[in-house]
Specification:
Blueprint: E1 2-5, E2 8-15, E3 21-28, E4 34-39, E5 48-54, E6 67-77, E7 80-91, E8 102-107, E9 127-131, E10 136-142, E11 151-153, E12 156-157, E13 161-162, E14 164-165, E15 174-179, E16 185-189, E17 195-197, E18 206-207, E19 216-222, E20 233-238, E21 242-247, E22 261-266, E23 279-282, E24 293-298, E25 303-310, E26 318-321, E27 330-332, E28 336-341, E29 348-353, E30 358-363, E31 370-376, E32 382-387, E33 393-397, E34 405-413, E35 416-421, E36 427-429, E37 437-443, E38 454-455, E39 462-469, E40 477-483, E41 492-493, E42 497-502, E43 505-513, E44 522-532, E45 535-546, E46 548-553, E47 555-556, E48 567-572, E49 578-582, E50 592-597, E51 600-607, E52 620-622, E53 627-628, E54 635-636, H1 641-646, E55 652-659, E56 667-669, E57 675-681, E58 699-702, E59 713-723, E60 727-740
Parallel strand pairs: 38-45, 46-53, 47-54, 58-60
Antiparallel strand pairs: 1-2, 2-5, 3-4, 3-6, 6-35, 6-36, 7-34, 8-9, 9-10, 10-11, 10-14, 12-13, 15-16, 16-17, 17-18, 19-20, 20-21, 21-22, 23-24, 24-25, 25-26, 25-27, 28-29, 29-30, 30-31, 32-33, 33-34, 37-39, 39-43, 40-41, 40-44, 42-43, 44-45, 46-50, 48-49, 48-51, 51-52, 55-57, 55-59, 56-57, ...
């Protein structure tokens, strides 16, 4: 499909299998001229849905003439090695629900059923499967870029109840299945000889009354639409060696009573008086009973027969054995269970076999017919077979009557090409409505890189050069501007000069660009806007600016040790510019930071998760190209034991507390590499008393070289772990600092 939003168009398509190359041609409907050829990228050739945007231009880059256009997509597929490649649709022997079973299968092969206004409503290419256990009709859309299976389930949950209900109940189940040229799936009822048909999404269900005395085995359908003069016909075969059809009413309903069902074969097949057909296939679903070729797979006779329709209308319809088929009217096949005709080439038929697990593909265009390939399909007999629009096989198998799985088979070939078009008059393009495109923005030195920065001194200047393309021609352009608000100026500026590069490209030069001291230091983005008579488009100019430098070190406010990985925030007290950096974790430079800022006066603060609040720096003034260090610098503090225990295991924390007494003198912990251990307590209510050695401890700390004594106030950095008996630990601590002696229960920094 293609949806136009003048002057562009979005073209949507779906690939049932991956292609190796392809193009989209934009065709002028009035002249048939191809104005643009878009080569599809690899990402546009995978199976599944895709969209490609046409920007309204020709191959030369100019705007296409005003007119109505359509899209023509062509894709090419690599050769498939014989006999073919199997692609799973659904396999209930391994996939849920494992109790479900299949019989009839078919596809919507009419490209006209591709809804180009709303692709979500398209039924072309959909695969329909009769689920004899759930009594549902499953619907699968070819092309599944997100999974291993060939198709995606359209309705329901594929693992619970895929598809929509057939409306059959009790001992009735959908058995045979076919899809009409108008896109309506039709089914037969195994147990009550009833027929039914539906809209593609399961709505508008039409279920017949009793249509005969035998079980319906398989179905097919003829005619384009029930509402046209020639009508639409539901054909069926039954276990009483019968074949016939019924004409649907204009609303697709079935006329009441079995007398409306015309029997075309009754009681016998040539050479076999009692055998019944198991499968039916028709050469052209857009044809009618009186001019169609009818194929019947008769298992007990070990033959596939072809009958030719005769007559001029429904009332005069009859069918008779076609002796031109293979010179005898039949083809010898062991235990055939179904037959289907390739819509791309009616000389190719496929035959499933109910006993041996294989599908035979035959060329019947010559006499005698010749077998093209024999495809093994597993370990059990095949139920039904059908062709899709691309000549691939759709098979249900795993058991003759109720197959466990449905597969698509790509028949071996030397490669193939498929071409489809959007509807005529799909979208309109108007010359002059193309928006400009900012193709390039070049910043000259200084300001073009981190090594050549523009000083924020409101004096030094740089130049920015912009190239704009307008496919409607440079005469359609009305100008370009650059917004200098980030540089401290309140309005956009116009170029100092402009020149025509070619018929569709214009160059604009902006000289004398400078930045005020309040401009942020670093990479600054300026917005470039180009306009024409149809609208505007934007681009970005990145200018690197320089200012001053603030450098310092973040330490703990009581432990006075440097803190790695802290976030440092520098705020300009005048302009409000905010900069953030992270303190160094490099050995020998722990806790240090360096930030490039605009000239101004800054306050520095620091933070780190699971560390307590600290203090802010004093006002720190820095000039252009100068370096300043806050004095005093910002600090961080600690959290308490309760907060440590609330932190996720494995967190780095900083806790300040008192070394526990009452028998908890630091000792070597042999269970932890002989690292000294001690215990912490505070007033946060999580030290559990620490009264006796048998009490659950507040926080155990392992720290190499630690020699605190009872009553010491300490600051510890470490990683939280959960030890034996659900005991919290810092194991091992990365830093330990004695703050004071004899001070119990410090107030936490929160």
């Amino acid at each position: 499909s293609a949806v136009g939003s003048d002057p562009t168009a979005t073209i949507s398509y779906r690939l049932n299998v991956s292609a190796n190359s392809g193009t989209i041609q934009i065709v002028n409907v009035a002249t048939s001229a191809v104005v643009r050829t878009i080569t599809l990228a690899a990402a546009d050739l995978t199976d599944g849905p895709h969209t490609v945007v046409w920007d309204g231009t020709t191959d030369s880059g100019a705007s296409a003439p005003t007119g109505t256009y359509k899209a023509r997509i062509t894709v090419n597929k690599n050769a498939v090695e014989f006999p073919g490649v199997a692609r799973r649709i659904r396999d209930h022997s391994t996939q849920a629900p494992t109790s479900h079973r299949y019989l009839g299968i078919d596809a919507d092969n009419n490209p006209a059923n591709n809804n180009q206004t709303n692709p979500a409503l398209s039924s072309f290419g959909n695969v329909y499967v009769a689920n004899t256990v759930s009594k549902y009709i499953e619907v699968w859309t070819p092309g599944n870029a997100d999974g291993a299976d060939y198709a995606q389930c359209v309705f329901g949950d594929p693992d619970i109840l895929p598809g929509w209900t057939s409306g059959l109940e009790g001992i009735s189940s959908p058995w045979g299945l076919a899809v009409s040229w108008s896109g309506r799936p039709v089914t037969s009822d195994r147990s009550k000889s009833r027929l039914s048909n539906y809209a593609w999404d399961g709505s508008d269900a039409k279920i017949s009354g009793y249509q005969g005395s035998a079980n319906s085995r398989d179905v097919d359908v003829l005619g384009v639409d029930a509402n046209d003069a020639s009508g639409m016909y539901h054909a069926a075969i039954s276990s009483a060696a019968k074949a016939g059809a019924i004409r649907l009413e204009s609303n697709y309903a079935y006329p009441y009573g079995s007398q409306n069902y015309i029997t075309l074969v009754d009681g016998a097949w040539p050479g076999d008086t009692n055998a019944y057909a198991q499968g039916i296939g028709l050469e052209n679903k857009a044809s009618y009973p009186w001019n169609a070729k009818w194929y019947f797979a008769v298992g007990a006779a070990n033959k596939v027969f072809r009958y030719q329709g005769a007559g001029t209308n429904w009332e005069t319809t009859s069918i008779g054995l076609d002796a031109t088929f293979n010179g005898s009217g039949s083809l010898d096949i062991t235990n055939p269970s179904d037959v289907s005709v390739n819509p791309k080439d009616p000389n190719i038929i496929a035959i499933s076999k109910s006993v041996t697990p294989n599908i035979e593909v035959w060329n019947i265009g010559a006499t005698p017919a010749t077998k093209i390939t024999d495809i093994a399909i597993g370990s059990a007999g095949a139920s039904h077979v059908a062709f899709d629009a691309w000549g691939n096989l759709l098979v249900t198998a795993g058991n003759y009557l109720q197959g466990a799985w449905a597969y698509m088979y790509e028949i071996g070939d030397s490669g193939s090409t498929d071409t489809r078009e959007t509807d005529v008059a799909t979208f309109v393009h108007t010359y002059g409505n193309n928006l400009p495109v900012v193709e390039s923005v070049v910043v000259s030195a200084p300001g073009d890189s981190a090594s050549s920065r523009l000083p924020v001194d409101d004096a030094t200047t740089t130049t920015i050069t912009v190239v704009v393309r307008d496919s409607d021609g440079t005469g359609n352009l009305t100008g370009a501007t650059i917004d200098l608000t980030p540089f401290g100026y309140g309005s956009a500026v116009t170029p100092t000069s402009s020149s025509v590069i070619d018929a569709t490209h214009m160059q604009y030069v902006f000289s004398g660009i400078k930045a005020k001291p309040s401009t942020r230091a670093g990479a600054v983005t300026l917005i470039v806007t180009a306009t024409d008579h149809g609208g505007s488009a934007t681009g970005n100019a990145t200018v690197y600016t320089s200012g001053g430098t603030i450098t310092g070190i973040i330490k703990h406010k009581t432990g006075n040790f440097p803190i790695k990985g802290a976030t440092v925030t520098l705020t300009d007290t005048v302009s409000g510019n905010v900069y953030t950096v992270t303190t160094s974790s490099v050995e020998g430079a722990e806790g240090t930071y360096t930030a490039m800022v605009n000239p101004g006066t800054f306050i520095v603060t620091a933070s780190r998760v699971y560390y307590g609040a600290g203090t802010a720096s004093g006002n720190t003034a820095v000039a252009l190209n100068a370096t300043a260090t806050p004095s005093p610098d910002a600090t961080l503090g600690s959290i308490n034991i309760a907060q440590v225990k609330a932190a996720p295991t494995g967190s780095t924390v900083c806790v300040e507390a008192v070394v526990a007494g009452a028998g908890y003198t630091p000792v070597l912990g042999s269970a932890n590499g002989n690292l000294p251990k001690f215990y912490l307590r505070d007033s946060s209510g999580n030290n559990n008393g620490l009264v006796t050695p048998t009490s659950n401890l507040g926080l155990r700390v392992y720290r190499e070289g630690a020699t605190p004594v009872e009553g010491d106030r300490v600051v510890v950095e470490g990683t939280t772990v959960m030890g034996p008996f659900q005991e919290f630990r810092l194991d091992p601590a990365s830093a330990y600092f004695r703050v004071a002696q004899g001070q119990e229960y410090p107030q936490p920094d929160v």
